[in-house]
Amino acid sequence: MNIQKVNQALLNKAKELASPTVSKDEIAIEPTAEMMDGLQNATDRVLALDILSRNWHTKLLVEEALQRVRAGTFGTCESCEEPIPERRLEAIPWAKFCVRCQEAADNSRDDNAEFQMAA
Questions:
Q1: Domain map (residue ranges) of the chain
Q2: What are 58-79's pLDDT values in tens digits?
Q3: 3-118: CATH class
Q4: What is the pTM of this model?
Q5: How far is Cα 88 from Cα 86, in angstroms, rounded to an integer?
Protein backbone atom coordinates (compact mmCIF):
# COMPACT_ATOMS: atom_id res chain seq x y z
CA MET A 1 0.00 0.00 0.00
CA ASN A 2 1.30 3.42 -0.97
CA ILE A 3 1.32 5.32 2.33
CA GLN A 4 1.84 8.71 0.63
CA LYS A 5 -1.27 8.11 -1.48
CA VAL A 6 -3.25 7.14 1.64
CA ASN A 7 -1.95 10.18 3.52
CA GLN A 8 -3.01 12.47 0.66
CA ALA A 9 -6.46 10.84 0.49
CA LEU A 10 -6.88 11.38 4.24
CA LEU A 11 -5.74 15.01 3.98
CA ASN A 12 -8.20 15.58 1.12
CA LYS A 13 -11.03 14.07 3.18
CA ALA A 14 -10.09 16.22 6.19
CA LYS A 15 -10.16 19.31 3.97
CA GLU A 16 -13.54 18.28 2.54
CA LEU A 17 -14.97 17.81 6.03
CA ALA A 18 -13.60 21.16 7.19
CA SER A 19 -15.78 23.04 4.72
CA PRO A 20 -19.31 23.64 6.00
CA THR A 21 -21.99 21.40 4.53
CA VAL A 22 -24.85 22.78 6.58
CA SER A 23 -25.75 26.45 6.89
CA LYS A 24 -26.90 28.15 10.07
CA ASP A 25 -30.26 28.74 8.41
CA GLU A 26 -30.81 24.98 8.16
CA ILE A 27 -30.57 24.53 11.93
CA ALA A 28 -32.15 27.82 13.03
CA ILE A 29 -35.39 27.59 14.95
CA GLU A 30 -37.89 30.01 13.49
CA PRO A 31 -41.55 30.36 14.39
CA THR A 32 -43.98 29.66 11.57
CA ALA A 33 -47.67 30.38 11.21
CA GLU A 34 -48.41 27.05 9.55
CA MET A 35 -48.10 23.82 11.50
CA MET A 36 -46.92 21.87 8.44
CA ASP A 37 -44.18 24.44 7.78
CA GLY A 38 -43.05 24.04 11.38
CA LEU A 39 -42.95 20.25 11.01
CA GLN A 40 -40.99 20.52 7.76
CA ASN A 41 -38.52 22.93 9.38
CA ALA A 42 -38.09 20.56 12.33
CA THR A 43 -37.47 17.64 9.97
CA ASP A 44 -34.95 19.67 7.97
CA ARG A 45 -33.22 20.66 11.20
CA VAL A 46 -32.95 17.04 12.37
CA LEU A 47 -31.46 16.01 9.03
CA ALA A 48 -28.99 18.91 9.08
CA LEU A 49 -27.91 18.06 12.61
CA ASP A 50 -27.47 14.41 11.62
CA ILE A 51 -25.20 15.49 8.75
CA LEU A 52 -23.18 17.66 11.12
CA SER A 53 -22.86 14.81 13.60
CA ARG A 54 -21.75 12.29 10.98
CA ASN A 55 -19.23 14.72 9.50
CA TRP A 56 -17.82 15.49 12.95
CA HIS A 57 -17.46 11.78 13.72
CA THR A 58 -15.82 11.06 10.35
CA LYS A 59 -13.46 13.99 10.87
CA LEU A 60 -12.33 12.48 14.17
CA LEU A 61 -11.74 9.12 12.48
CA VAL A 62 -9.74 10.80 9.69
CA GLU A 63 -7.60 12.66 12.23
CA GLU A 64 -6.95 9.38 14.09
CA ALA A 65 -5.97 7.71 10.81
CA LEU A 66 -3.52 10.54 10.05
CA GLN A 67 -2.00 10.01 13.51
CA ARG A 68 -1.62 6.29 12.75
CA VAL A 69 0.11 7.16 9.46
CA ARG A 70 2.57 9.39 11.35
CA ALA A 71 3.09 6.72 14.03
CA GLY A 72 3.65 3.98 11.46
CA THR A 73 0.71 1.89 12.71
CA PHE A 74 -1.66 2.63 9.83
CA GLY A 75 -3.32 -0.48 8.39
CA THR A 76 -3.25 -2.50 11.62
CA CYS A 77 -6.53 -3.35 13.34
CA GLU A 78 -6.72 -1.62 16.72
CA SER A 79 -8.57 -4.59 18.19
CA CYS A 80 -6.89 -7.78 16.97
CA GLU A 81 -3.67 -6.14 15.68
CA GLU A 82 -3.94 -8.03 12.38
CA PRO A 83 -3.43 -6.18 9.08
CA ILE A 84 -6.55 -4.51 7.71
CA PRO A 85 -7.15 -5.73 4.13
CA GLU A 86 -5.98 -3.26 1.50
CA ARG A 87 -9.37 -3.30 -0.25
CA ARG A 88 -11.03 -2.13 2.99
CA LEU A 89 -8.51 0.68 3.40
CA GLU A 90 -8.97 1.73 -0.22
CA ALA A 91 -12.72 2.01 0.40
CA ILE A 92 -12.49 3.53 3.89
CA PRO A 93 -8.96 4.82 4.52
CA TRP A 94 -9.88 5.94 8.05
CA ALA A 95 -10.96 2.41 9.08
CA LYS A 96 -9.30 1.41 12.34
CA PHE A 97 -10.71 -2.12 12.54
CA CYS A 98 -10.66 -5.11 10.23
CA VAL A 99 -14.08 -6.23 8.97
CA ARG A 100 -14.47 -8.94 11.65
CA CYS A 101 -13.64 -6.57 14.52
CA GLN A 102 -15.80 -3.79 13.03
CA GLU A 103 -18.76 -6.17 12.86
CA ALA A 104 -18.17 -7.18 16.49
CA ALA A 105 -18.01 -3.52 17.54
CA ASP A 106 -21.20 -2.75 15.60
CA ASN A 107 -23.01 -5.73 17.15
CA SER A 108 -21.86 -4.72 20.62
CA ARG A 109 -23.10 -1.18 20.03
CA ASP A 110 -26.45 -2.52 18.76
CA ASP A 111 -26.78 -4.80 21.81
CA ASN A 112 -26.06 -1.88 24.16
CA ALA A 113 -28.64 0.31 22.39
CA GLU A 114 -31.26 -2.43 22.71
CA PHE A 115 -30.42 -2.85 26.40
CA GLN A 116 -30.70 0.90 27.02
CA MET A 117 -34.03 1.05 25.18
CA ALA A 118 -35.41 -1.85 27.24
CA ALA A 119 -34.33 -0.29 30.55
A1: 3-118
A2: 999 999 999 999 999 999 999 9
A3: mainly alpha
A4: 0.75
A5: 5
